[in-house]
């Protein structure tokens, strides 16, 4: 225990401040162990009671086929899983113990609501419409973009105008128009009209989480080939095609007002276009390597571009006569995305496994750094609540606040969550059913319900 450790190290050569910090950390670890141990004992007692009750009916909980209803949530902690958890917990390193403890409370706060299955290859990007009807958009390596009903998981529109991977999708701020970026070296602007299906009142919100794992399929799809997009209306031709890049267009976004759009390319440039005329207004040069992402400020004429050159750049178009640029250097590997938040903050994520929060008034060093165990892909910030969603290469999605405090990890098991790299996250703060979406290389997008008040209260 920490007290024994203290007695044995009275003659330590360590400075007292370092020793006190270590003592405090050991104390925390001891408390985490104790809490886990107590929790596991309680769960084991609960399962023993359940097994006694079920023995009369000739069934016990052993982690195999589980009955539906109330029992389902209890039975998910099967005896075998518990003993395994106890074993692995005591073998694990400190950080794993702490995260294991943290996730025991995350499940009720972060619930998987819907899976959106229909793409034939990995999904690079996910986005939520800003106007009614509120639909979900996905961009995929299968050369298509799909629009979905958030409530039913049904595909509403399929865009097939690109001849390369569709790398990003963004919705116009006021119109039913989408902007997609593609490996075919273009960005397309296309109009859509959708008829939202009526949600079935009998639908169970959590039906997906109890289903057995079937690769790339969805129980709602009658054709059985995992292609939920085969029967939805198809759009083949864009309103406008933005051409002038000499390489893959990896991302695109609307400037405030929707009259201009910005694209980011592997040709190391970002381009600003006039949407109505599709003319190139500015070519933004300066990055030393391929661009990975671009993002626009919700209310001001500001653009941020990120790159494999380990930097991201802030471009200011507020004054028509001066186009200033600021370079942010704080990462040691590819910056995978940088996004604006409320006020004067930018949040950047990187393959160096960190996420950094920056103040635009002081760009020399970040105001917070989040260190993780896996490369970070396209991040998104819940503006109202200032919560950052981090999608990782290692299939995890974690939630942090702006000061770098970890709030939760989205549940992931062989029954739910992403089965391959998670590429992107997108918040939809006002949606009553799903307020966070993620997508990945497993060809599916997932809608989550995050109980934000409970999440923040737990913090």
TrEMBL record:
Coiled-coil segments on the chain, per record: 33-60
Organism taxonomic ancestry: Eukaryota, Metazoa, Chordata, Craniata, Vertebrata
Keywords associated with the record: Coiled coil, Cytoplasm, Nucleus, Repeat, WD repeat
Cellular component per GO, a single term: cytoplasm
Compartment(s) where it occurs, according to its Swiss-Prot or TrEMBL record: Cytoplasm; Nucleus
UniProt KW NADP keyword: no
Pfam families in the cross-refs: WD40 (PF00400)
Major place of residence: cytoplasm
Extent of the WD repeats: 116-158, 159-190, 242-283, 284-325, 328-368
Protein name as catalogued: WD repeat-containing protein 37
């Amino acid at each position: 225990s920490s007290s024994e450790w203290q007695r044995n190290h009275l003659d330590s050569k360590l400075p007292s401040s370092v020793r006190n910090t270590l003592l405090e950390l050991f104390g925390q670890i001891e408390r985490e162990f104790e809490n886990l141990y107590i929790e596991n004992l309680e769960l084991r007692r609960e399962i023993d009671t359940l097994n006694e009750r079920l023995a009369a009916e000739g069934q016990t909980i052993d982690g195999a086929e589980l009955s539906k209803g109330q029992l389902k949530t209890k039975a998910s902690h099967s005896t075998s899983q518990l003993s395994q958890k106890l074993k692995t917990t005591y073998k694990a390193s400190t950080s794993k113990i702490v995260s294991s403890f943290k996730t025991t409370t995350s499940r009720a706060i972060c619930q998987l609501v819907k899976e959106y299955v229909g793409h034939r290859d990995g999904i690079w990007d996910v986005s939520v419409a800003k106007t009614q009807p509120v639909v979900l958009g996905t961009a995929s390596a299968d050369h298509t973009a799909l629009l979905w009903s958030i409530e039913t998981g049904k595909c509403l529109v399929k865009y097939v105008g690109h001849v390369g991977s569709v790398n990003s999708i963004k919705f116009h701020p006021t119109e039913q128009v989408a902007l997609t970026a593609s490996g075919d070296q273009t960005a397309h602007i296309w109009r859509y009209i959708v008829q939202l299906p009526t949600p079935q009142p009998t639908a169970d919100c959590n039906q997906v989480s109890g289903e057995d794992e079937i690769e790339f399929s969805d129980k709602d799809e009658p054709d059985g080939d995992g292609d939920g997009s085969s029967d939805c209306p198809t759009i083949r031709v864009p309103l406008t095609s933005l051409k002038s890049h000499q390489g893959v267009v990896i991302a695109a976004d609307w400037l405030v007002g929707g009259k201009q759009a910005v694209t980011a390319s592997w040709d190391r440039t970002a381009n600003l276009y006039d949407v109505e005329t599709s003319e190139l207004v500015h070519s933004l040069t300066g990055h030393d390597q391929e661009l990975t992402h671009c993002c626009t400020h919700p209310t001001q004429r500001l653009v941020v571009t990120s790159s494999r050159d380990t930097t991201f750049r802030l471009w200011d178009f507020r004054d028509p006569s001066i186009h200033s640029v600021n370079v942010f250097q704080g990462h040691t590997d590819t910056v995978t995305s940088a996004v604006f938040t409320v006020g004067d903050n930018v949040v950047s994520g990187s393959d160096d496994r960190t996420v950094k929060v920056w103040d635009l008034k002081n760009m020399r060093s970040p105001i917070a750094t989040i260190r993780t165990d896996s490369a970070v892909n396209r991040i998104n910030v819940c503006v109202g609540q200032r919560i950052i969603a981090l999608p990782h290469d290692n299939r995890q999605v974690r939630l942090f606040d702006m000061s770098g405090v970890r709030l939760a990890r989205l549940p992931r098991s062989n029954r739910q969550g992403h089965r391959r790299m998670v590429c992107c996250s997108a918040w939809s703060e006002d949606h009553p059913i799903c307020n966070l979406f993620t997508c990945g290389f497993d060809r599916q997008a997932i809608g989550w319900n995050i109980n934000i008040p409970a999440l923040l209260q737990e913090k």
